[in-house]
Predict the structure.
Amino acid sequence: MIRTPLRPLARILKARASGEDPDLIEQENLRLRREAARDSARGRAEGRLLALAVVFVAAFVVLGARMGLLAATSPVEVSRGLIEDISGARADIVDRNGRVLATNLATHALYAETRRMVDPARAAHELERIFPDIDGTRMAARFMDPNRRFIWIRAHLSPEQMQAVHDIGEPGLLFGPREMRLYPNGRMAAHVLGGASFGQQGVRAAEIIGVAGIEHYFEDRLRDPNQTDKPLQLSLDLSVQAAVTEVLEGGKRMLNARGATAVLMDVHTGEVISLVSLPDFDPNNRPAPPTEGEPADSPLFNRAVQGYYELGSVMKAFAVAQGLEQGTVTPETMIDTRGPLTFGRFRIRDFRNYGPQLSVKDVMVKSSNIGTARIMQPIGATAQREFLDRFGFLEPMHLELSEARRARPLLPPRWSELSVMTISYGHGLSTSPLALAAGYATLVNGGRKVAPTLLKQDQVQAGAQIISQRTSDQIKLMLHQVVQEGTASFARIPGYPVGGKTGSADIPNPHGGGYKKDAVLATFASVFPSHEPRYALVVTLDEPADTTGPEPRRTAGWTAVPVSAEITRRVAPLLGLRPIGLDVANARFQQGH
């Protein structure tokens, strides 16, 4: 090791020679060494401070960027260390006037954390008192099961139930905030709305998913975060829906019908103003799907769109319209109505003897099966099938209900000459009341095809021209005459002229084949005002019977027609229709022809 001398030898010798003190040189040397040490230490400290400042600035930038990112994104709730990325947000559903049909309601779920429970047996007993459907003994066993730490008890609570649970004072019973789907009008429009239930669930949130009806069909639209604040507006009118439901329920009960349905549609826009199917249900407490029996016996079954029936004589209007459109007949053409009409081993009969011949107009007014079959005989199967297909009777209905697209019409396996005749008066081909309403709308609106819709429309549909304006005018007049002179006389309403056609179809026996005895499906398809139709109304009653007379009367003229007339009388003012005299309506028919 090289040792640096404290006193430079040359300077010391020189200092001694000149008589100076050598100690001063040593002191100066020490001072310089100390200053160099201080400069070195200061440099190291300044480097450390600079490095620390850089670290602080970098950390500040990272934290600031993170805070900005969190501020720009949706808040995420953290619960017990787990992130619950569940949204219960869902857009409201409103009627055509903005009245709420479905909305979300803030509520709470009830769950238990068993490790926090002090007296689980008492808590189970108290819950049984608050919720009668809870078995207190089984619930206590679940609470005391050492393998269970978390138990769902209730998906949602009313404020009263929540307070009652709170009063138990059990620390292991906890509440989780969430939203639930609420239908403030109860059973009103239940088959249209369908209902919703909880999907994925967390402690502090639950996913709401549609299970049927509009709620299911528009699932993506209703849950879209960008549209949850924009209500989905339907074509339904809540006031009209309430009136139709009340009248139809009364008619079903009075006539001891197994079921009933009514569809009210705007003939120009295709908007479904009211759709009722009975029996119905409360979507706030939607029942479970049936596991046995006939589907139509379940209140979940939508008779208006899922029910495909042989609707009987209401289909005669389409047979007559095809004859008029193809020019094979005119309203005055005389048709042979002598019966029975024999085809092989089959015989076609009329309800009563109408004489040897009737005009085409009277075939409609008196509802002659034989006359309608003879009108269709020269037209044939191919033309008939194409004509009905243009009306949409041979395909599932395209309506904003998932149930509608799963139901399909029943067609004859072989469209024979006999099929042509039976289908002309409503047997051998099944269709739904909704499809029938759309078909009648097309018949009377000038011949333009109308697609039914449950969404509010701002303009008239520009559908394909199915029949000519002339044929449409002739059909309107015949439907008007059916009410004034024929089988639907009970549909006469002062101030509101109605046109329509009755149908009383035998009901197939699902077990033994053939048809049920003393049971019919009674249907009345009507339009109003008849001289200038704006609405089509189809009312169908399943196995009704008017027992006010000496013998039960089951035909549509005695059952479906009076119910339909009362619906029209109630809803026409709600729809803004002004009363008009029958003489004025007849005069306008004469002007049109």
User: Anything to note?
Assistant: The chain has a mean pLDDT of 88. The two ends are 133 Å apart (CA to CA). The CA atoms of residues 306 and 407 lie 5 Å apart.
